[in-house]
Amino acid sequence: MMQTWSLAIDSGNSRVKFGLFRDQSHAQFEEPIEFLALDLQSPLPVEILNQWCQRAMASGANKLQSIAGGSNPRALDCLLAAWPEVGMRSGEAAKQSFWPRPHVLRSGLDLPIVIDVDAPERVGLDRLFNAVAGNTIRLPDQPAILVDAGTATTIDWVDATGRFCGGAILPGIELGARALHQYTALLPLISRQELSAPHPHVIGRNTRAAMSSGLFWGHVGAIREISTRLSARTQPPVLLLTGGSAGILAGEFPQARLVPALGLWGMILSMPAES
Ligand SMILES: Nc1ncnc2c1ncn2[C@@H]1O[C@H](COP(=O)(O)OP(=O)(O)OP(=O)(O)O)[C@@H](O)[C@H]1O
Ligand SMILES: CC(C)(CO)[C@@H](O)C(=O)NCCC(=O)O
Ligand SMILES: [K+]
């Protein structure tokens, strides 16, 4: 039986995410077997990807496929330029020593989703990957809200028929922190580490604590307000939470499902059949 394992690569504005998925022909969401997020400056993690490749084959994969895309086409081009020229002779595992060069998704119009917005070709691919994945997780006839808390945070609406309908874009938590520092005379830079503590005290008794409070609770409030407004329109949607900051936000949204690999999974579902 054909066992196709997939490597999905999402190149974002701050980080590149890699995920290893076992055979997904049944198209039901499963968490990746391996997940790795690296800063954009990091070199292609060839050693690790090689280990994943070996792991897939040792677990019975007889075909490997790779797929790449995301919100940052330039970072994606750098990554592809660094791709090792090996193991490309055929899709047969016996001849493969590394992942084949990724199939690249560059246009949202090629994805398996209806895009109901003013200019479908301009929607960030990361938003669409989330929506493609969300369509396999929401119940039939149930809409979905997709919150992706990354460099920017997006809060998108997929209607009960599975169409991507747009949503809201706001600065991510860290972007907010950087902007406060850069555009004021006196505010310090709140580090990524400081920002990764969930649930800060609401009353900050010093500048840093006050900034941490505003950044965190302001974000929680924005997500709550926008998703409440969206939810009021129809039957109750499912709320899916992803992105680098999703983990610290999840505790404030007990009704949400945290799906760190949502976009990677959406990419795999978007892989054209003949590739
Ligand atoms: N360990 C971590 N390393 C890097 N960023 C982290 C970490 N933990 C949380 N973050 C937050 O996650 C954000 C990056 O998230 P993510 O990787 O989802 O974004 P991205 O995909 O690069 O951006 P976008 O989706 O907006 O293009 C950072 O801005 C940071 O605030
Ligand atoms: C909004 C971001 C930055 C979120 O990663 C990305 O999806 C993007 O650059 N989008 C392009 C514009 C749009 O989606 O309408
Ligand atoms: K993203």
Write up what this structure looks like:
There is one protein chain. The chain has helices at 46-58, 73-81, 125-137, 173-182, 192-195, 207-231, 246-249, 262-269; strands at residues 4-11, 15-21, 34-39, 63-69, 103-104, 144-149, 152-158, 164-171, 238-242, 257-258. By secondary structure, it is of the alpha/beta class. The chain folds into two domains: 4-104, Nucleotidyltransferase, domain 5 (2-Layer Sandwich); 112-264, ATPase, nucleotide binding domain (Nucleotidyltransferase, domain 5), CATH 3.30.420. The strands form two sheets. Strands 3-2-1-4-5 form a five-stranded mixed beta sheet, with helices on both faces. A five-stranded mixed beta sheet has the order 8-7-6-9-10, with helices on both faces. A hairpin with a 5-residue loop joins strand 7 (152-158) and strand 8 (164-171). Helix 3 (125-137) crosses helix 8 and helix 4 crosses helix 6. The radius of gyration is 20 Å and the shape is globular. It binds adenosine-5'-triphosphate, pantothenoic acid and potassium ion (K). Potassium ion (K) binds at residues 12, 71, 126, 148, 150, 243, 263.
